[in-house]
Amino acid sequence: MSDTAISPTASTPSRRDGAFVLKWAASIIQILGYASTAFGLEPWNLMFFFVGLIGWFIVGVLWRDRAIMLIHVVALGAMIVGILSR
Question: Which DSSP string do the residues of the chain spell out, in sequence order?
Answer without folding.
Answer: --TT--STTTS-HHHHHHHHHHHHHHHHHHHHHHHHHHTT-TTHHHHHHHHHHHHHHHHHHHHT-HHHHHHHHHHHHHHHHHHHT-
